[in-house]
Amino acid sequence: MNKSLVTDCIKLCVITLIAGLLLGFVYNVTKAPIAAQEEKTKQEAYKAVFSDAAKFEPEKADQKAIQKVLKSKGLGQNTINEIAKAVDNSGKTLGYVFSVTNPEGYGGDVTLSVGVKNDGTVNGYETLTINETAGLGMKAKEDEFKSNFKNKKADTFTVVKDGSGKNDDSKIDAISGATITSRAVTSGVNSCVAYAQTLKGGN
Length: 203
Known about the structure:
Blueprint: H1 2-49, E1 55-59, H2 63-72, E2 79-87, E3 93-105, E4 108-117, E5 122-129, H3 143-146, E6 158-160, E7 171-173, H4 179-196
Parallel strand pairs: 6-7
Antiparallel strand pairs: 1-2, 2-3, 3-4, 4-5
């Protein structure tokens, strides 16, 4: 009985070891392609929110400095993960592209790529990750909602439900039935606008 138990334990250990090695192998094989795809998606999002740029130069994202600015604006729940300078063919800085995450979406984190010109005008945003309700919060990926921000300039954007956003650039018409998502996206964009003002060339 004891001998059988020991044999079974050895078999289980061997199976576990082999499974672990296989998982490690699969991870190493897929790690590079996944990273490459993520980088491609990010670059496509950058280009979508800053089509005038010839290239994007990575900037240091000083988290202490970023959080100091965001907290002073009541936006400390957001995290600006990456910053890239949008540069034209002559080397002139046109503005910045930010990767920002807001954790307060209805379905969790909402991560955006946001373009902000030197004068503070928002070029627009693209969603990098979002897990909101289909037919409601997921409408944040659609042009109808994204157009609320495109080529708009405001120190702070505010979500409204009365349709007044059509007449005021600083007001964002909420997605019907998805106010939480609307606020999460708007908060993320506001964070990028706030920090862009502190960068060289920001207004």
